[in-house]
Amino acid sequence: MSRGPLLFKDIDTPGLRSIDTYRKGGGYETLATFGQTSADQVIEVVKASGLRGRGGAGFPTGLKWSFVPKASPKARYIVCNADESEPGTFKDRELMEKNPHLLLEGMILAGYAIGSSLGYIYLRGEFEYIQQIIDKAIAEARAAGLLGENVAGSGYRFDLHTHLGAGAYICGEETALLSSLEGYRGQPRLKPPFPAVEGLYASPTVVNNVETLMNVPYILRHGAHHFRWDDPLFHDRLSARIIVVRDCEDQCRAIIQRDELLLRGQTKRTLSNDVPAMVRNNRGSQNFRGPRRRGIDQNGDGILPNNLFGLG
């Protein structure tokens, strides 16, 4: 398969907001596998895909799902962070505006994986028109038997609701978002406990970004291998690792190939030919926080130990 913009490839398809157009392109086909694929298998596929959170933190999505305690007697919740409050950001807005059913499918799959029967899409206050688009998509999915008591005839129960925030920037942070969703002031909570253990209504909760959830149907439809190859972000991470060190006067960038760093973790390598002396000696680099933490020898001899700059 050729690499390209996975989520935006068909974004301008006429009528893509409607469930009929979405299903003509293969939409909701993954729900037919519920009787054949267990929740744990879904998590393992997402883990193998290398999908990471697209809200900024980049935490492995499958690993995050696996943190939800299976033995908890409490209800479990899947929450979509559609706040998108960062200035100049608009990817989530466009995706929801033009392809809302892809988000719904991703949330159903995520809910199935963590054993949730209820999900919420939290939108920033200015997204009222997008809330109307998503609410219409939810109504279409319910009418088609893809949400509710018996999702796609599988016996799995799952439903979705949208929630409009008040436009507070801080509610882009997941714990502040959960406080707002509960009806309280949107203020971040102390961790631990983490949301996966005690989140919405003090119950196990997974919070994922819009783009993160929209990638899940592709992964389960085509397999983890295809996603790892087709996703430009993942492909670029494999090709090289970039270390940027800022000096008070100079700025340097050292690019070290993955095969040299990651595949020879037990072989110490010198950086004399790869990184400027400023980095090797660890002098004057204000943002290069600590020789031990970053893997530079205390004596400044440029030996790269096994921790590989913390990138492995």
Topology, element by element:
Elements: H1 19-24, H2 39-49, H3 61-66, E1 77-82, H4 91-98, H5 100-114, E2 118-123, H6 128-143, E3 159-164, H7 174-181, E4 205-209, H8 210-222, H9 224-230, H10 232-239, E5 240-246, E6 251-257, H11 258-261, E7 269-270, H12 277-281, H13 291-294, E8 303-304
Parallel strand pairs: 1-2, 1-4, 2-3
Antiparallel strand pairs: 5-6, 7-8
Helix pairs in contact: 2-5, 2-9, 4-5, 5-8, 8-9
Entry keywords:
single chain, 312 residues, alpha/beta, Rossmann fold, 2 domains, two-stranded antiparallel ribbon, 13 helices
Question: Could you walk me through the main structural features you see in this protein, from its secondary elements to its overall organization?
Answer:
The protein is an alpha/beta fold and 312 residues long. The chain folds into 2 domains: 19-223, Rossmann fold, CATH 3.40.50.11540; 237-310, no CATH class. It has helices at 19-24, 39-49, 61-66, 91-98, 100-114, 128-143, 174-181, 210-222, 224-230, 232-239, 258-261, 277-281, 291-294; strands at residues 77-82, 118-123, 159-164, 205-209, 240-246, 251-257, 269-270, 303-304. The strands form 3 sheets. Strands 3-2-1-4 form a 4-stranded parallel β-sheet, sandwiched between helices. β2, α6 (128-143) and β3 (159-164) form a beta-alpha-beta unit.
Short description:
The protein contains 13 helices and eight strands. By secondary structure, the protein is of the alpha/beta class. It folds into two domains: 19-223, NADH-ubiquinone oxidoreductase 51kDa subunit (Rossmann fold), CATH 3.40.50.11540; 237-310, no CATH class.
